[in-house]
Amino acid sequence: MCLICVLALVVVAITVGAAPYELPGTLTLPDGAGPFPAVVLVHGSGPNDRDETVGKTKLFADLAEGLAAHGIASLRYDKRTYVYGDELTNDLTLDDETVLDAIAAVHVLQARADISRVIVVGHSLGGMLAPEIAARAGQVAAVAMLAPPARPPLVILRDQLRYLHAPRELMAQVEAALAVIDLTALAALEPGAPADDPTTHVMGMPLSYWRDWEAHDGVAAARALAGRVLVLQGDRDYQVTGEDFAIWKHALGRHCVMLAGDNHGFMRGHGPPSPREYATAAHVDPRVVDLLVRFVTTSR
């Protein structure tokens, strides 16, 4: 059963970015002449496709359909690490992984006569980076952050692995990295350290990547938007938790909404969350679409 059973929309193939990292994307437009408000959908970490497919769930495809049903366009695209993963080294920065391509997507929409204004909607890491993306792109009306992390990334990773009862060896790797990455000690890390040193790489990425992530202050960037921001969080999310939400709530107050029953992908469920949930086909919580529609239509 589809999210929207009767839906008139127009789907346009779009290219985001420039050589050597051109990314295929999909612009979903409501039926009609426009101009329409539009969102850029920015992925979480890792090699995600344009639908942000996880198992049998497709968060971004659901959002695109749900928003189009309410007169809102959306642009989603395959992530650089998804299209060019075999060609990339693991010394990526967050600019390489996420920010620059999202800015390019904003500019694609801003150049179209059938788009009236642009809102950045990011999920997970993309949510944390959404305020920065908006500021650097310029002329963005507002930002919505879905389950954005607020704590240091390796702390979040450690807590996720503990929750999942990860192998002892992997936990030891993360703990060793945390001992190094107090950010003052990291500057003294030998740049020529051997690649098999367990303190230099975590989950295939060097400590320079994790340091770059921690250097991006999403909370400060969101505060600078002067209220043009929305944070949504599910209370069944073990990946980005209530600890992160509390930081956003303290910084942004009434602009933060907790949704009972939702997991990290904003699919509703019951009981302790688990990665196994994503093996079952599910659609985005309609409350998320409703909140985004209300937010987008009132953002100028």
Number of domain units: 1
Strand-and-helix sequence, N→C?
EEEEEHEHHEHEHHEEHHEHEH
What's the N-to-C terminus distance? 34 Å
Tell me the name of the CATH class.
Answer: Alpha Beta
* Secondary-structure arrangement, i.e. CATH architecture: 3-Layer(aba) Sandwich
Largest sheet: 8 strands, mixed
Helix content: 25-40%
Please count the beta strands (DSSP E, at least 2 residues each): 12
Give the CATH H-level superfamily.
Alpha/Beta hydrolase fold, catalytic domain
Assign the structural class, choosing from mainly alpha, mainly beta, alpha/beta, alpha+beta, or little secondary structure: alpha/beta
What gyration radius follows from the Cα positions, in whole Å? 19 Å
**DSSP strand content:** 15-25%
Q: What is the global morphology?
A: globular
Poorly predicted segments: 1-6, 183-190, 193-198
Adjacency order of strands in the biggest sheet: 1-2-6-3-7-8-11-12
Question: If you average the pLDDT, what whole number results?
Answer: 90
Number of helices: 10
The CATH topology label is Rossmann fold
